[in-house]
Specification:
Elements lengths: L6 H7 L11 E2 L5 E2 L18 H44 L4 H23 L1 H4 L20 H6 L12 H14 L2 H4 L4 H13 L9 H17 L2 H4 L2 H13 L9 H6 L3 H5 L5 H14 L12 H16 L6 H12 L7 H16 L7 H24 L15 H21 L5 H41 L1
Antiparallel strand pairs: 1-2
Helix pairs in contact: 1-2, 2-3, 6-8, 6-9, 9-11, 9-17, 11-15, 11-17, 14-15, 15-17, 16-17, 17-19, 19-20
The structure holds zinc ion.
Length: 474
């Protein structure tokens, strides 16, 4: 008798107004029981009951409790509510197609709701400082003793990132900073390095593709290119530090929707960065917000001039990962590559930009078993975006449309016209990447072309069968 059923419904009937409520209980004989630690237990044989006039008050107390709970879930509820209202309003625009005034009103309502939703979604971006708060204590991720085999494998583009837990990937990243001599040469506090890496992990979101594992893969590919191309003989250690750090930070807090979406949906990020590489600007800003926390600042021992260089270098590299700038950056590199000059700062910067671009889109360089799951991840993220674009009445890119894309069609053009030309240009400076990186790309292209032929043949058969069944009907 104590718990009224469905007390959540009661909250609408009894708005919570009471502050100091005197509740009393009656025992089975009808005598008043004071509510304090000495009160008798409520058992089945002698249950305590509420006096009938108090029941309403008790309901109200429960209502308040329910309110507290529901507030905690409110954000999700609001999101659903706004989405539902948006769908309803869009339906109404369709149905009431004749009434022009009504349409205009609905449009305005939709616009307002969309803005409200966008601001709600985006308020998570920078105001959510929780993730940026450094961990005060020594990070407790278990120190994995990387085996000799792992340490060796880590240097190769064939490394299989799918086999590792986040903690293990953190240990691998930590190992790379030590192995390249960066910790020693720049006097980086090893504990700060651990805390920084943990904070990096916490600031990647669980997107299908743009997540911490992608960050790890890009950084590991950078590490293997540094080893394979003996970049430490050509570059300064500061350049190596910039290459590695930019790779680690390059997709921080990626929301899972690309720049085109940000711009078309006029999100807070697009507004903040005036449609100019909104995501890359954001990744970079989050990176330096993390460095602004002393506990995570691996550059705390740098003099101001060195910090300025690392900051400028990192910003330049992260901003170079915007694929909208692919043609511009590759063209600029092509003009330098035949007379490449390692003493020319502009040349070196351009090469670093191309290197991070190579690593960022290097999945197809990896063995098929490692590369292929990433295509599924990317398509999952693309489909999520195109579904949302359709729902919001925004333009949809054909390469993201689940009705139009298949794995082979998605990959063939990208490998042929983006990856191979870029890696072949880099090959002019580093012939050793032909075997390790360009050859796997060519093999992957051939494999997807075969898969596409099979797909096409199947579709042809299906089409013929459909045509045949149609001709039978008539
Ligand atoms: Zn990336």
């Amino acid at each position: 008798p104590l718990l009224p059923h469905s007390y959540t419904q009661q909250k609408k009937l009894y708005p919570p107004t009471l502050q100091n409520t005197n509740l009393s209980l009656l025992d089975s004989s009808g005598a008043m029981v004071s509510i304090d630690p000495t009160m008798p237990h409520n058992t089945e044989s002698s249950s305590l009951v509420l006096p009938s006039d108090k029941e309403e008050l008790f309901q109200n107390v429960l209502t308040q409790v329910a309110e507290q709970f529901s507030r905690a879930f409110k954000i999700n509820e609001l999101k659903t509510e706004v989405t539902n209202r948006l769908a309803m309003l869009e339906k109404r625009v369709e149905l009431e197609g004749m009434k022009v005034v009504e349409i205009e009103k609905c449009r305005n309502d939709i616009k307002k709701l969309r803005e409200e939703m966008a601001s709600r979604n985006n308020s998570n971006f920078l105001e959510d400082n929780k993730k940026l708060t450094p961990r005060r204590d020594v990070p407790s991720y278990p120190k994995y003793h990387l085996s000799k085999e792992t340490v060796e494998a880590l240097r190769l583009p064939t490394f299989d990132a799918w086999q590792w837990e986040p903690n293990e990937m953190l240990s691998c990243l930590e190992h790379m900073y030590h192995d390249l001599g960066l910790v020693k040469d720049f006097n980086i506090n090893p504990i700060t390095l651990k805390r920084w890496l943990l904070s990096i992990h916490d600031n990647y979101r669980n997107n299908p593709f743009h997540n911490f594992r992608h960050c790890f893969c890009v950084t590991q590919m950078m590490y293997s290119m540094i080893c394979l191309c003996s970049l430490q003989e050509k570059f300064t250690q500061l350049d190596i530090l910039i290459l590695m750090t930019a790779a680690v930070c390059h997709d921080l807090d990626h929301p899972g929707f690309n720049n085109t979406y940000q711009i078309n949906a006029r999100t807070e990020l697009a507004v903040r960065y005036n449609d100019i590489s909104p995501l890359e600007n954001h990744h970079c800003a989050v990176a330096f917000q993390i460095f602004s926390q002393p506990d995570c600042n691996i550059f705390s021992n740098f003099d101001p001039e060195a910090f300025k260089q690392i900051r400028q270098g990192t910003i330049t590299l992260i901003l170079a990962t915007d694929m909208a700038r692919h043609g511009e950056i590759l063209d600029s590199f092509k003009q330098k590559v035949d007379n490449f000059d390692y003493t020319d700062e502009e040349h070196v910067t351009c090469l670093k930009m191309v290197l991070i671009k190579c690593c960022d889109i290097s999945n197809e360089v990896r063995p098929m078993e490692v590369a292929e799951p990433w295509v599924d991840c990317l398509l999952e993220e693309y489909f999520m975006q195109s579904d949302r674009e359709k729902a919001e009445g925004l333009p949809v890119a054909p390469f993201m449309d689940r009705e139009k894309v298949t794995k082979p069609t998605a990959q063939i053009g990208f490998i042929k016209f983006v990856l191979i030309p870029m890696f072949e240009t880099v090959m002019k400076l580093f012939p050793q990447i032909e075997e390790a990186m360009v050859q796997p790309l060519r093999e992957s292209r051939d494999r997807y072309e075969e898969l596409k032929q099979i797909d096409d043949a199947m579709n042809e058969k299906k089409k013929k069968r459909t045509e045949h069944s149609i001709s039978c009907i008539f």
